Amino acid sequence: MNWGLRLTFLLALPASVGLAALAEPVIATLFNYGAFGAEATRNATLPLMAYSAGLIGIILVKTLTPAFYARQDVKTPVRIAVGTLVAVQLMNLALVPTMGVAGLALSIGLGACLNAICLFVMLRKRDIFVPQPGWFLFFLRLAIAVAIMGGITWYAASLVSWTGPKVDGLLRAGMLALIVGGSAIAYFAALFAMGFRLRDFKRMGAKA
Description:
With 208 residues, the chain is an all-alpha fold. It has helices at 2-21, 23-31, 38-52, 55-69, 75-99, 101-125, 135-158, 169-193, 198-207. The protein has one domain. The protein is 81% helix and 0% strand. The chain starts with a helix and ends with a helix. The relative contact order is 0.16. The model has no long low-confidence stretch (mean pLDDT 88).
């Protein structure tokens, strides 16, 4: 569980931040052609940014739920899922009228995070999951690395006119690939500079 959760945060958190920062470049690269113009691209950007907020929650649910199944407990995850469904519908009533389709995406993402939080609380309450030492330092390093990566990603994306009429698809894809690759290098370089080593992570996982 400790290994799985750390791996989830290590990969999903920067992916979520990167997806939010690159929402417009991704939409423009995939769809900004023909009748799907600049305005449509901008309209589709906000829902993707809102959905990215729930990416970490969606993956955490996949990591936490098997802990209940391993103990032959199917009822608890189902009950939490039903409660989350109700919460999502209530959030839809509050967010969709003001944010439109972006509100729908945001409520789904927040619902996934709520689901993950409830699963985690139940695992801790029943002493099924006991965190190993080092979580604070892990989150501190991760937060700094993600902040560096997010800043670089956002700045690099802002230098390009993604919806310009003279920017063809191959050029967009190439620039997007360069930004993603550069951001990934910056992220792992920051972790390495702060003392993160893959062998240490594997050793920690073997003990979990």
